[in-house]
TrEMBL record:
EC number: 5.3.1.24
Gene name per UniProt: trpF
Organism: Halobacillus naozhouensis
Domain of life, per lineage: Bacteria
Protein name per the record: N-(5'-phosphoribosyl)anthranilate isomerase
InterPro entries per record: Aldolase_TIM, PRAI_dom, RibuloseP-bd_barrel, TrpF_fam
Amino acid sequence: MLEPLVKFCGNRSLRDVQKTASSSATHLGFIFVNSTKRYVRPEQVGKWIRRVRPQQKIVGVFVEPSMEQLDEVLAFAPLDVIQLHGKETVSDILKIKESFDLPVWKVIHHQENGLEQMDLFKGVVDGYVIDSKVAGSHGGTGVRFNWNAIGNYLEAANAQNVSCLIAGGINPDNIEQLMDDHPDGIDVSSGIETDEQKDLNKIQAVMKGVERHVASVSGC
């Protein structure tokens, strides 16, 4: 069994990065969307990464970025994955992949036509993040969507042979419930924060929930 991907997103200080990097998460995320409270400047991220040297892969989160913005971020921050939260088209994504040769994850906001949207990006994206649809927000809201739909999203991603991460309202209190649905991965931001800073106790609690699931499935 492949172990689930764990992305701790919305890191916005050196202390945040030190805490999330100390975990066994697989990915650390940084928000390069300047209309959001977790926005970070690329030069800051570059400094934090050079100082902490995390073992995790680095994910840059964008909303309909220009090529110039991606160029600027990549000049400072060594991204391993580009995550797109906006209304990017297939053409936009193909252009990004051709220009930067990096995997692209597309966020699908849970709604009636969510599965149809996934079908549009078949063969184009390298993974999906399923998040809650909240008016006026692209993510990081701490709001859950109806988890009864998770199985359908996982099945659709599996048919495309790509990973499907679940986001939105995940925290230490519900992580084990979520893992019962066997997601390919989780994407957590507000659920590991206290007073808008990453909380090491919550980080460890979420990881324990994931690790207990892995142990139970593997029969250890």
